[in-house]
Design a protein that fits this description.
Alpha-Beta Plaits; mercury ion transmembrane transporter activity; periplasm; mercury; 4-stranded antiparallel sheet
Length: 91
């Protein structure tokens, strides 16, 4: 039992070293009214691993901070698209 516990502790420590908090900016050109950012933010907040969201109507973008071990950019863009606001990574 003790060996199993030690193995789990090591696996957890090693697994969490691969996780990284990332921030990406998504271009969301379909936001055409002041209420649109609310919908975009709500959709992104439902994605597991997202920790911070800032949506700008003026810039037509969403800045999203997330744990890349729990989610990825494809899931973020799918969330906005499913809410009616297709997005892409802003370069």
């Amino acid at each position: 039992m003790k060996k199993l516990f030690v193995a789990l502790v090591i696996a957890t420590a090693v697994g969490s070293t691969w996780a990284a908090i990332q921030t990406t900016t998504l271009s969301v050109p379909g936001m055409t009214c002041a209420a649109c950012p609310i919908t975009v933010k709500k959709a992104l907040s439902r994605v597991e691993g997202v920790s911070k969201i800032e949506v700008s109507y003026d810039k037509r973008e969403a800045v999203v901070t997330f744990d890349n071990a729990r989610t990825n950019i494809q899931k973020l863009t799918k969330a906005t698209e499913d809410a009616g606001y297709p997005s892409s990574v802003k370069h």
